[in-house]
Design brief:
The protein has about 400 residues and is α+β, with helices and mostly antiparallel strands. The chain has three domains: about 10-110, Acyl-CoA dehydrogenase/oxidase, N-terminal domain (Butyryl-Coa Dehydrogenase, subunit A, domain 1, Orthogonal Bundle), CATH 1.10.540.10; about 115-210, Beta Barrel (Butyryl-CoA Dehydrogenase, subunit A, domain 2), CATH 2.40.110.10; about 230-385, Butyryl-CoA Dehydrogenase, subunit A, domain 3 (Up-down Bundle), CATH 1.20.140.10. It is built from twelve helices and seven strands. The protein has helices at about 10-20, 20-35, 40-45, 65-80, 80-95, 100-110, 210-215, 230-260, 275-310, 315-340, 355-365, 370-385; strands spanning about 115-130, 130-140, 150-155, 165-170, 175-180, 190-200, 205-210. A seven-stranded mixed beta sheet has the order 5-6-2-1-3-4-7. It is globular and about 75 Å long. The two termini are about 35 Å apart.
Length: about 400
């Protein structure tokens, strides 16, 4: 094992910002081919993006939450699909660190390993000698084409005759990929379906999902790691919060690039930048992006402060974390929609980036753990003194 010291915050954010031109260059290719370009993956690998949620003893960075959010923001400026895929890799990579150390040796033994995954229990895990045999089908597996491992969730019988969800790590070579990612947005993420048929998973690569949700780690080596002193919902929210903010910033940059030379059809404005309506639209979109970034950074601040002080997470902390992600998403999407509408009919052509950004952020906003209305309702429910109506908190 090679223990490394993580690059400073500013260095990682700068490296992510340096990727923006290349991400934009390949964004259209990724949409057309429904997966990320190999050069995009290689460049993000070289920049250390996939090491940010890997323990330092395996050469990872164990990056703090603020760094994660700000790096995701820069990636989102370049390509929402690439930023989304990176955020998805960060979550299962973090989850691997909750497994026994021998399991981590197996997974993280591959340099720059990429782990995709899901939290949907759409498989069955039958007990077998020394492990379980898994059968199932999992959809929306972002980044599957470039992954070496997948984290899956399956239902497994308990000794009392009930069922419980379990978390298992499976090599991608044991799974079938179904090329079914034909969607209206985030096409470059390649979020295909994967299938397991009678796949044996040894017991050291299986954990009860309930234990993970209760922060009951099976790792000895990670016991003192700051990265693991946070619930799953906190780690997941940190991974996704900056993506939408970055996409909104990318939309603003795309809009401003076209602004000076674009006329407003059927008006006397030879330059859109001269119109008062444009001033209102740009000002309103900017304020929405600023507010979205506030919520995204508050997600990170809550995690980093709780980690530093050791203060336990209350139910309100957990609900507030999800609500902040929902707010960041809603405000970012509102800003993108405003700028997209202000871009006029000429923006509907596929070579104009803002139409793709608008479709991408619409798709991301429908994700079950991000959808603003659900997350806001959850916060209100907890504030009203009721128990949360979800396990994912």
């Amino acid at each position: 094992m090679t223990v490394v010291h993580a690059p400073p915050h500013d260095d990682l954010v700068e490296k992510a910002a340096d990727l923006v031109p290349l991400l934009r260059k390949h964004a259209a290719w990724g949409e057309e081919n429904r997966r990320l370009h190999d050069e995009t993956i290689e460049a993000m690998t070289a920049a250390g993006i996939f090491k940010m949620r890997v323990p330092t003893r395996y050469g990872g960075y164990e990056s703090d939450s603020r760094t994660i959010v700000e790096v995701a923001t820069q990636l989102g400026r370049g390509d929402g699909a690439a930023a989304w895929t990176a955020s998805v890799y960060w979550i299962p990579s973090w989850m691997v660190g909750m497994f026994p150390d021998e399991t981590q040796d197996e997974v993280f033994g591959t340099p720059d390993v990429r782990v995709c995954g899901t939290l949907s229990p759409t498989g069955m895990a039958a007990p077998a000698d020394g492990g379980v045999v898994v059968n199932g089908r999992w959809g929306f597996i972002s980044g599957a084409w470039h992954s070496q491992w997948q984290e899956i969730i399956a239902m497994s019988p308990t000794p009392d005759g009930g069922m419980q969800p379990v978390l298992a790590l499976v090599p991608m070579s044991d799974l079938q990929i179904v090329d079914d990612w034909h969607t209206s947005g985030v096409r470059g993420s390649g979020s295909v379906t994967t299938v397991a048929t009678d796949v044996f998973v040894p017991q050291h690569r299986v954990l009860p999902l309930g234990a993970l949700m209760m922060q009951q780690s099976a790792s000895v080596a990670n016991a003192d790691s700051a990265m693991y002193k946070v619930p799953l919902v906190g780690a997941a929210n940190v991974a996704s919060a900056g993506v939408m903010v970055g996409m909104a910033k990318g939309a603003m940059e795309a809009f401003m690039e076209r602004l000076p030379d674009r006329k407003i059809t059927y008006t006397m404005y030879d330059s859109q930048r001269e119109a008062p309506v444009t001033h209102l639209q740009v000002g309103e979109a900017t304020l929405k992006i600023d507010a979205a970034e506030f919520h995204a950074l508050r997600v990170a601040r809550r995690v980093d402060e709780r980690t530093a002080t050791g203060e336990p997470w209350s139910m309100l902390d957990r609900a507030s974390s999800r609500a902040d992600v929902g707010a960041a998403c809603r405000l970012s999407k509102e800003a993108v929609d405003l700028l997209n509408q202000a871009s006029g009919g000429s923006s509907i052509y596929s070579d104009v980036p803002i139409q793709r950004i608008a479709r991408d952020i619409h798709v991301i906003s429908t994700h079950g753990l991000i959808y603003p209305a659900t997350n806001t309702e959850l916060l209100g429910r907890v504030l009203c003194g009721l128990e949360p109506n979800t396990l994912f908190i």
